[in-house]
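Now read this:
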Amino acid sequence: MKIRLENEDDYSEVEELVRNSFWNVYRPGAFEHYIVHELRDDESFVNDLAYVIEDDNQIIGHINYSKGFIEYENEKIDAVILGPIAVHIDYQNQGFGSELIEYTLDLAKKENIPFILVVGDEDYYRRFGFVSASKHDLYLEGTDTSQECPFFMIKIFDESRLKKEKGIFHNPDVFDVAQDDVDEFDKRFDYKEKKVLESQLEEL
């Protein structure tokens, strides 16, 4: 196994990997591969934390980070969020996603990034030291700030750089995708059937 920075030659392979790993998981079809594609040319992209993991020269995992912002009462500050992360369907549940997360979190700490945010499964991300962001009075845009939002989490490297007041995190604009744009982008790939499954997110 080899973990290395993503490069331009990886783009198509990475996008197909992300598409396949998310297809019909959270919604009919997927749009995470389109976000990955769009991020690379977006100012929010943290390119030195975009890594892949290889097995026998095949990319089996990929991770991205980008910068959104936290809106406080009197100011806005940049904040880095993890994702999307994807692992090839034949290699899932074998620890490769964990390797990518641990490796890049170590890099983020060394690069003096004060904290990392993530939206995801709290049971999964807790193992890497993430806790509910609401414990630090941080909330995801669009969620109820009067209640804990367990799937919006934070890992803190330097608590002194975290403000002691309520803040609302806004994802990078590139995360807000239009379905028509995703459908057009999907024409670059082999056809896959969109399915509605009981396991998908209810609100979708």
